[in-house]
Amino acid sequence: MSARSTPKVKRPALKRDASVAENVFARLVETLVTGELPAGEPLREAQVAKQWGVSRTPMREAVRRAAEAGLLILRKNRAPLIRAFTPHDVDCLYQIREMMEVLAMEQAWKRLPEKEIAALRTMAEAVGNTSSKPWIARCLAFDEALHKIWFDHCQNPWLTQFLQSSRVFIRIFQHMMARDPALVRKSYEQHLAILETLGTTDLQLGTRLLRQHIRDSALKVTQHMEDKLAAEAKPVTGG
Q1: pLDDT tens profile 55-100
Q2: Closest to 87 in 3D by CA, of 229, 235, 231, 233
Q3: H/E stretch holding 8
Q4: What distance in Å separates the CA atoms of residue 198 and residue 179, rounded to the nearest whole number?
Q5: What's the confidence (pLDDT) of residue 20?
Q6: Pair 81, 73: CB distance under 8 Å
Q7: What distances in angstroms separate CA 186 from CA 178, 183, 203, one per listed residue?
Q8: What SS3 class is residue 81?
Q9: In 35-156, which ranges are continuous DSSP H helix?
Q10: Cβ-contact 222, 90 below 8 angstroms
Q11: How do residues 118-136 score in pLDDT, each as one tens digit?
């Protein structure tokens, strides 16, 4: 067969397959982050794939990637296990988070665009003062946007990549704590204090407030986990 008669490979189909796999992975991560798929339980791939109307191939790829990210535990001849984080996991993750975020803030400090800082102030004002579900959602969105500003402007692509990867775990803990409006409000107030330092020359105050916020967050999450473990271990007495 001549080179001229060789059939061409249809690239668009491969692109669509890649897009489906990416969408399935994103949806899987979101369900793990929000707790829709509960921690400590096996992940029934075939069942979830059927519910989502996708084939097993993109679901297997999503499971593989989620396991590489640390969200699932693969087991031989058994369903993957959804990782249940421990207080020790929180301590380790937040120690790494503190080191990386403070470094990112230090590197980004003089590069933070005033336009983006102003947008964050507008976003913070729009949060409001209620304790409704929309208010909590706005607080979490402001949280995400605030931390992202030094992720984006530290001009260290490796550091940004590590921070974005670790942010998945932080979101899991955020959703855990979002059930308590008082904790959300405390975190929001700390974010406001950090925001006030952006665009100033007081880097020392900015990093001090960021360190304190991250350490306080770690304490809240570990306390919540320990309280939950204690409640689960408490024997049930008959009535």
Answers
A1: 989 999 999 999 998 899 999 989 999 998 888 999 999 999 999 9
A2: 229
A3: none
A4: 29
A5: 83
A6: yes
A7: 11, 5, 22
A8: strand
A9: 45-52, 56-68, 87-108, 114-125, 133-153
A10: yes
A11: 999 999 999 987 767 789 9
**Is 39 within 8 Å of 82 (Cβ atoms)?**
yes
Region 30-40: mean pLDDT is: 87
Residue 1, domain member (yes or no): no
Q: 191-235: per-residue pLDDT in tens?
A: 999 999 999 999 999 999 999 999 999 999 998 888 877 777 776
pTM of the model: 0.80
User: In this structure, which amino acid lies at residue 182?
Assistant: A
Give me the domain span that covers residue 77.
8-82
53 plus 133 within the same structural domain: no
Name residue, tokens 């607080």: 139
Q: What is the CATH number of the domain that holds 177?
A: 1.20.120.530
Say how far apart CA 154 and CA 106 lie, in whole Å. 8
Work out the widest C-alpha separation in the chain, in whole angstroms: 85
In a domain, 35, yes or no: yes
Q: Which of 65, 82, 99 is the last residue of a domain?
A: 82
Same domain, 14 and 108: no
Which DSSP symbol is given to 109?
Answer: G
How many Å apart are CA 52 and CA 1, to the nearest integer? 44
- If you ran DSSP here, which 8-state letter would residue 174 be given? H
Computed on alpha carbons and rounded to an integer, the radius of gyration of the chain in Å comes to 22
Q: Across the chain, what does the average pLDDT equal? A: 87
